[in-house]
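ok here's Large ribosomal subunit protein eL33, seq below lol
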Amino acid sequence: MSGEATRLVRLPTPEEIFEKGMAVGVILGYRMGGNEQYENQVRIKIFGINDRRLASRLIGWKVIYRDQYGNEYRGKVIGVHGNRGVVLARFKPNLPGQAITGLVVLQRS
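and the structure came out like this:
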């Protein structure tokens, strides 16, 4: 590795997330239906949350996404998607497609 230090990041535990009232996640994509795409709703994977029960405690939390130009998009967690800690969030105005794979911050409301 030629002297480069490998930096490992420790994921927060669920207790730390709920104690601080703050979490970080990544946008996976828009919510999809059989024949349609809901542009105002996105799926978000929260780092440190790995099951449906813990993810359901995040419903109602505020979500903030900032793009590279400094624009801020605000949303709200509205539900759980699946059994692996993915949540659904609704944004107004809708998130642009460039936001997919971007990082978001969740805050307790």
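fwiw Strands lie at 22-32, 37-46, 62-66, 72-81, 86-91, 103-107. kinda neat tbh
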